[in-house]
Amino acid sequence: MSSSARAANAKTYTARGFEAVSAPRALRSDELPRIVADYRAAARNAIAAGFDGVEVHGANGYLLEQFLRDSLNDRSDAYGGTIANRARLMLEVMDAVVGEVGAGRTGVRLSPVTPANDLGQDSDAQALYGHVVEKLAPMKLAYLHLIEGATGGPRDAVPFDFEALRRVFKAANPAGAWMVNNGYDRTMAIAAVEQGRADLVAFGKPFISNPDLVRRLRENAALNEPKRETFYGGGAAGYTDYPVLA
Fold first, then answer.
1. Which of 76, 91, 122, 210 shows the smallest number of beta carbons within 10 Å?
2. What pTM does this model have?
3. Is 62 a catalytic residue?
4. For residue 7, which phi and psi values (nearest 5 degrees)?
């Protein structure tokens, strides 16, 4: 299911290896309340299972971003067309999750310009994500998690003013954390926090090859290089067998 009935030119990993993704169907308007309820239930179940909080995935070409971007969303109902309409589902989901588990236990991840999963750029990404952040900020979320640039790729491939979004978020939610992501190393992360450009820096891939990443960053120790050939290998090799510091 998606915002629109268009297959992505992408592959996903299955038991048979990488396969072309299937074509989705466009969700009907009357189905969307159930989608919102699913997010609410997932958040409730996560907290019941002992998690401290939940992060709503609104990035990387996943469902909520498929509604956000006009490069894909071709709907003519209340969830398509204008920026406000395209942002409607995400904001309804966030209202539901916050209402279920509390704003202090809720974050959201956004990727304004990443082309992940064949999702094209929005025609006015700055205006779109500016609207989204403006609406999210008064919810007093625990944090906003921003992917700067293309996930796993260039940080500056598409011009975008992330600092403008940060200012909007902080103006309405000064206690909320601004988390940044994408290609950060220790030096870059320290600089971003010291210069006030971020409160937190997220690390992803380095955690695969460095189970003790926190200690390595604290002590400025060398990092293990990931074995890319074992990614999606389906077993422990290259996932849970990396060495830790003595």
1. 76
2. 0.92
3. yes
4. -75, 145
